[in-house]
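Lab notebook, design round three. We kept the backbone fixed and only want residue identities now. Task for the bench partner: fill in a sequence for the structure below.
Input structure tokens:
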């Protein structure tokens, strides 16, 4: 049984949240042991109700049951589809069956993208950027926010209560015990936001900056941000907007160095861990993720750590005249989601002819990283790490980068 929460956000506006603990890989990609929530919102006015978004299709029945406890089907005047992705729109067919009088509002593209949805024909109304609707004395203003996270994405601003219904934007992973940001003292909210931004909208980071600029120019200063995933930001809406801005700019956390390595037999691992030790001795904060014969990191966490690291170290064995496959995948994902003009250091080992350094440079320099130094060492059984070279690289990394001067 899925956990469903219905709570008041402001007078007349309720969150309808379901906690998804079944999805192990969001978008069949990103590992989410912390879970994810789908948040719909119900606005009740004296002239009828508006539902903003829905849940993933597997929770359609649970959503209808939650709605049934609040309103009758004929009360539902509008369903606002902020985003056509099935994690929010999957329950639309069930909603259209349950509330036959409800009309569907969304970005013009939503009409095209969802055409063919059972029950939608003749019931969709496109809303323009800046368009508004008044219902029972409550004003709804629609703000197009393209590419957060698809081209048709939109937000709704409720000026009366200062609530921004933002869908994917300002969302996060994690099924926190409480609905609001101030109800989970122990939740790593920042890490959940960072991981969500890096993986889900990392590719569209410039759109985050555009949307923030647009909200600013429209004078939208939310008192409450009510996103489609994660907690409702009622105690610190500014904080999450600023965090989104920092992540969109891939702004580094001072001293954070991502060390990403793979090692089949331990040679490359020795180099990577020796460097981690040297960096820690110099007061830096190495974050180490390694693929070995005993463990694999969560790829989503690696990408999240790449996004706000000051520098990256990639350490790889040579594998069939190329790059160890998982590492190739992960650095390609870093390029897609977390590319930034940051310093890159490479460590590699080989037995008869190195190739990994060239491959890593080819991929990562191609997306903006700058190779500052590398070590390509022939592995010798029971050899010591090339300590001088490792120490030199640690010195290089610990030099204050221009961004911190
Ligand atoms: C499947 C496999 C493929 C390899 N391919 C190459 C290669 O193409 N060129 C090379 O010089 N060494 C190759 N090696 C040797 C490793 O690159 C070398 O032993 C390296 O130091 C291993 O690092 P590790 O101990 O961190 O796994 C290969 C080893 C394995 C197991
Ligand atoms: Fe999405
Ligand atoms: Fe989503």
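Proposed sequence:
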């Amino acid at each position: 049984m899925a956990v469903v929460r219905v709570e008041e956000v402001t007078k007349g506006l309720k969150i309808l949240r379901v906690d998804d603990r079944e999805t192990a890989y969001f978008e069949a990609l990103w590992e989410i042991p912390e879970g994810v929530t789908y948040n719909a919102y119900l606005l009740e006015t004296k002239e009828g109700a508006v539902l903003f978004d829905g849940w993933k299709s597997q929770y359609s029945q649970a959503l209808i049951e939650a709605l049934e406890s609040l309103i009758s089907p004929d009360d539902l005047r509008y369903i606002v589809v902020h985003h056509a992705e099935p994690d929010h729109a999957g329950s639309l067919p069930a909603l259209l069956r349950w509330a036959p009088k409800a009309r569907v509002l969304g970005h013009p593209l939503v009409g095209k993208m969802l055409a063919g949805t059972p029950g939608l024909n003749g019931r969709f109304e496109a809303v323009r950027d800046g368009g508004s609707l008044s219902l029972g004395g409550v004003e709804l203003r629609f703000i197009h926010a393209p590419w957060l996270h698809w081209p048709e994405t939109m937000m709704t601003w409720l000026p009366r209560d200062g609530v921004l219904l933002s869908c994917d934007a300002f969302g996060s992973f994690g099924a926190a015990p409480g609905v609001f940001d101030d109800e989970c003292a122990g939740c790593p909210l920042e890490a959940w936001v960072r991981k969500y931004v890096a993986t889900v909208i990392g590719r569209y980071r410039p759109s985050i900056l555009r949307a923030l600029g647009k909200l600013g120019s429209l004078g939208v200063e939310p008192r409450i941000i009510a996103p489609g995933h994660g907690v409702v930001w009622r105690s610190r809406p500014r904080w999450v907007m600023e965090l989104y801005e920092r992540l969109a700019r891939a702004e580094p956390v001072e001293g954070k160095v991502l060390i990403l390595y793979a090692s089949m037999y331990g040679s490359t691992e020795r180099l990577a861990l020796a460097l981690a030790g040297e960096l820690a001795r110099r007061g830096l904060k190495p974050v180490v993720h390694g693929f070995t014969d005993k463990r694999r990191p969560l790829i989503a966490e690696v990408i999240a750590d790449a996004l706000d690291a000051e520098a990256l170290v990639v350490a790889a064995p040579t594998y069939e005249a190329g790059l160890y496959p998982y590492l190739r995948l992960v650095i390609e994902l870093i390029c897609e989601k977390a590319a930034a003009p940051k310093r890159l250091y490479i460590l590699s080992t080989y037995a008869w002819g190195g190739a990994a350094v060239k491959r890593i440079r080819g991929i990562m320099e191609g997306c903006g990283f700058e190779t500052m130094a590398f070590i390509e060492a022939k592995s010798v059984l029971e050899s010591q790490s090339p300590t001088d070279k490792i120490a030199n690289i640690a010195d290089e990394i610990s030099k204050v980068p221009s961004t911190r001067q």
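Keep this in mind before ordering anything: DSSP finds twelve helices and 20 strands in the chain.
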